Records
---
Amino acid sequence: MHPISYLRADSVEAAVRAVRGDPGSAFLAGGTTEVDLLRQHVRTPRRLVDVNRLPLTGIEELPDGGLRIGALARMSDTAESPTVRERFPMVAQALELGASAQLRHMTSMGGNMMQAVRCGYYRDHQAACNKREPGTGCSALLGVSRGHAVLGTSEHCIATHPSDVAVPLAALDAVIHTRTLVGERRYAFGEFFLEPGSTPDREHPLEHGELITAIEVPALPMARRSLYLKVRHRGTRSHWSPSPPRSA
Ligand SMILES: Cc1cc2nc3c(=O)[nH]c(=O)nc-3n(C[C@H](O)[C@H](O)[C@H](O)COP(=O)(O)OP(=O)(O)OC[C@H]3O[C@@H](n4cnc5c(N)ncnc54)[C@H](O)[C@@H]3O)c2cc1C
Ligand code: SF4
């Protein structure tokens, strides 16, 4: 048994203060990563600070045409937002390719950015894994490496970040907004996801207790492009259709 306590935060400040002030605390959003890892003994927080009541669920178009997605917007709400579907279709499409409908109803956009790698050795608390336990080695290097990275790897870790929606967000130069005890910070997408190098346990530049509050996507012209062809049948609404295979 691993005793654990639970706190429901009623403000952004309270959530940040609670986690920042206790190295054994972690944020809890949809719980689809955090509770999984708890059950697998991969993470052992002493306290979960529930952020689900915080007013960070908005999905809004900015005056300059950009998009602001609150960190607690669910993946499904984001994918179904008319603004996202019309103005940023590749974001909606990438979200719909991820997980399952049930999971997308639970999962938050902030949690999606912070989700853990799917490497089986990371999730097996008895296997050597530099990301989970620095200095123990990387079981995947000589073990099962299917689905692992081919670019940006190191001799210490070859896992990929598993978020589907991170791909179009990276292409669209999204910015991640956070809150700390001393104020707000912004991270360009490219500097938010750290390559493993010699410290694969450090995946983001965030300090302990730093809360993602929103993801902003600028209104680049390519934001209107789709991952698919858009087709229209006579008398029906237009809809997305997978691209036909390219001829050689
Ligand atoms: C069976 C299964 C299949 C999946 N398939 C896919 C897939 O195909 N594609 C895909 O992209 N994802 C997939 N996922 C991952 C899923 O998208 C993530 O688990 C989910 O997005 C995490 O969000 P959450 O709200 O549940 O976060 P939680 O589990 O609550 O939190 C995840 C982590 O983020 C931290 N955190 C949460 N919110 C914040 C915040 N606002 N600021 C800072 N830290 C925070 C938590 O402390 C925790 O460490 C799958 C998950 C499962 C279980
Ligand atoms: S690839 Fe990374 S996550 Fe997987 S075992 Fe190696 S160090 Fe751990």
---
Amino acid sequence: MLAAAVGAAVSMGVSVAVVAAPTAAAQPQSGPSARIIVGYRAGAAAAVSDTAAAQDAGRKSSRAQGKLLRRLSTGAALVEVADGSSVASVMAAYRSDPAVAYVEPDLVVQPLAAPNDTEYGKQWDLYEPTAGMNVPGAWDQTTGTGVTVAVIDTGYVAHSDLAGQVVAGYDFISDASNAKDGNGRDADPSDPGDSAGYFECFLQPSHSSSWHGTHVAGTIAAATNNGKGVAGIAFGAKVQPVRVLGRCGGATSDIADAITWASGGTVSGVPANRTPAKVINLSLGGQSSCLATYQNAINGAVSRGTTVVVAAGNSNADVSGFTPANCNNVVAVAASNRAGNRAFYSNFGAKIDVTAPGGETRRETDASGTTTTPENGILSTLNSGATTPAAETYKPYMGTSMAAPHVAGLVALMVAKKPALTPATVESLLKANTRPLPGTCTGGCGTGLVDATKTVQAVS
Ligand SMILES: [Ca+2]
Ligand SMILES: [Ca+2]
Ligand SMILES: [Ca+2]
């Protein structure tokens, strides 16, 4: 993990299976004939007499060919509408009959296949009933098509499970030494690695490259149903990598410009963003009150209709001391573990809006930092290079850095369903459609654990 340093914003990732229960997807029955279910009121002849119900079926079908197929266990009549009859008009005829309590189509429901991504079974954070965020039901409604999500982070390292999901971004790191790509700001947000040697960054120990932005991007929009790797929450959306974090973290001045540019605002010396983001993910922060530089940039983004999602921080402390999560006009996200408790590292407090899965790849008591419970982390796209890019891989991380992109992905689903949603409405819908944490949270976890299916349903 990158430690916090005064004056520097640092990433909040802590360096670091099951089969989905099918849910039913209702589809209207089609074919040459159609079936409807008719519930008669008690006392109606057709409620008990099959002959009466059969005669009724014949009368209400335009060609007098409607048939009673059988009675259901509920007593309702299963009726076949004659070939050529309008199902809608037959149903209307039943509905206007005072002897009929209800009439409804005999919908054909099918198991909604879980995505075929080979690692999907390990993504408890998406589907597990205990403390997952109930994502598959939202995919019936939208997958985020048409929305750009800016990931303001370490940039993007090539990964085949993300390659088709990425649009042009930008590298906002001004300091060439911190950037490790040989120059200051440029149009290429590729992540060359953010590793650093001992004491190279203030007084920090050495650390390997994190590929943090690529992990975050995979949670939001990894290619899904492509028979490999992980599934992304808003896999119809595009990720815009905006690079601000280098080997020693990132500067507020660069991050603020990145927020402005990502949301379609103007930054001197930088070409206009051709695909402005409706959602910004900031899995970064530092210990400070909210800086005016952040607040001004955030307010500008929100005024352009962009929702700003921020990780609460990993210090097991009140979020009020961590910026930009403590700024106004953001969605501040705490992290929960697989049991639905506040994760041991997650910040908390009155400024938390909602909680999302951040995972725990080890227990709090493991002072060594060794990964002991990889199955309880958040699995996503990564690279195996310790310094520079090497082979692509998938690894579990934990952190509020991992929780925030769960919410950013959900926001992408919401705004895909209704592009006119304002950031304020997005935030209130997120908060209103959470469920209580199944475990415990001391200190404040906002309104609870986000629920993707319920939240997207509430967008109308
Ligand atoms: Ca550069
Ligand atoms: Ca670059
Ligand atoms: Ca995949």
